[in-house]
Task: inverse folding
């Protein structure tokens, strides 16, 4: 079996807030945010809009592109750090809202690396023959737990959702392999103190707010994201120079450029959405993928590499022949 991406979709809330608008509320400037991070604006969900509402919109778009119906889905994985409720999973609310009949549904918690974790897990379900079509979604309403007094952190994040349908198809023996070629996941809990939310049901009984040591996260992100790309290309025995598109987690343009340089990838091969979306955590890679596909840059047969690092610290990558 091969695991192909049969459809991709995304959703951004209507409310786009520019740096200049943000500077009216907190002590910052467009110049500071843009020069340090590459961010120009971010989208914020409405008060009554939940993570599963955004996930549902992205999922519909992915289903439509794949030409599939909700009844075709056998597995739903939502990667999120901002679930609708502490339990049950956001995945079951997405299932309910899409009208997917009983199937396997759960969330993964790997922060900004969540979509890569979800892709790896879904790939395993497909290649072991447990499901044919899996819906994987990265969806976040990060605006609900930002500390607006911490200006070095709150300006970096936004809300949104991105989804992909992974489908199992028989391998084509005569042709080059397609779909997911290799994946890599890792986490190091010793580094959890650098990026986390300072609340939780079993500790404070609150949701908490995002806390980040920006410099440490930056340093680890460049090292591990680039390392993760090396890892998947080696695992698939593919040359880095054959990569058509690098679709990295969108945390900071300086992190993206540093990784591209380490990987000797021309910047024209990198999908960048940070200027318009800011950091949407687990949603950022599928959002960027969807933009690249719908504007015609990413074409069927292209070799794509996804890589991300986030809270955990957790990181990972996936090499995919689209
Ligand atoms: C957060 C980040 C942009 C900060 O950039 P930096 O160059 O390290 O900036 P510093 O923290 O050293 O702050 C520099 C100055 O800017 C100020 N500053 C911080 N936030 C500011 C803001 N929003 N507006 C204006 N000034 C700000 C600081 O107070 C500091 O001033 P001082 O030198 O007078 O004390 C950067 O570390 C980063 O992007 N890290 C990675 C974060 C990330 O990607 N996280 C998610 C990963 S999933």
Result:
């Amino acid at each position: 079996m091969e695991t192909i991406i049969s459809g991709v979709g995304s959703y951004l809330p209507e409310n786009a807030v520019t740096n200049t608008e943000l500077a009216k509320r907190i002590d910052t400037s467009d110049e500071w945010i843009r020069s340090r991070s590459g961010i120009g604006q971010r989208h914020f969900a409405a008060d009554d809009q939940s993570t599963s509402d955004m996930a549902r919109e992205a999922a519909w778009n992915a289903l439509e592109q794949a030409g599939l119906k909700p009844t075709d889905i056998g597995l739903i994985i939502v990667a999120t750090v901002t679930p609708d409720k502490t339990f049950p999973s956001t995945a079951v609310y997405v299932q309910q809202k899409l009208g997917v009949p009983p199937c396997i549904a759960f969330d993964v918690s790997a922060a900004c690396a969540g979509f890569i974790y979800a892709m790896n897990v879904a790939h395993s379900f497909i290649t072991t023959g447990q499901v044919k079509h899996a819906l994987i979604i990265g969806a976040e309403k990060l605006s609900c737990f930002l500390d607006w007094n911490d200006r070095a952190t709150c300006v970096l994040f936004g809300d949104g959702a991105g989804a992909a349908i992974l489908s199992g198809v028989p391998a084509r023996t005569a042709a080059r392999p397609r779909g997911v070629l290799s994946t890599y996941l890792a986490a190091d809990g010793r580094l959890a103190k650098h990026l986390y939310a300072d609340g939780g049901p079993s500790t404070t009984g609150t949701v908490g707010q995002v806390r980040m040591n920006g410099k440490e996260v930056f340093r680890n992100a460049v090292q591990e994201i680039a390392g993760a790309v090396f890892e998947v290309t080696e695992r698939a025995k593919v040359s880095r120079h054959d990569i058509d598109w690098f679709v990295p987690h969108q945390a900071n343009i300086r992190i993206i450029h540093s990784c591209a340089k380490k990987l000797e990838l021309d910047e024209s091969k990198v999908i960048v959405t940070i200027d318009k979306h800011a950091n949407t955590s687990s949603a950022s890679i599928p959002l960027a993928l969807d933009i690249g596909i719908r504007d015609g840059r990413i074409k069927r047969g292209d070799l794509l590499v996804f890589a991300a690092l986030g809270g955990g610290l957790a990181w990972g990558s996936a090499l995919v022949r689209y």
Residues 179-321 form a domain with the Peroxisomal Thiolase; Chain A, domain 1 fold (CATH 3.40.47.10). Residues 28, 32-33, 36-37, 112, 151-152, 155, 212, 214-215, 217-218, 221, 251-252, 255, 279, 310 surround coenzyme A (CB under 6 Å). The mean pLDDT is 97. The chain has two domains: 2-169, 179-321.
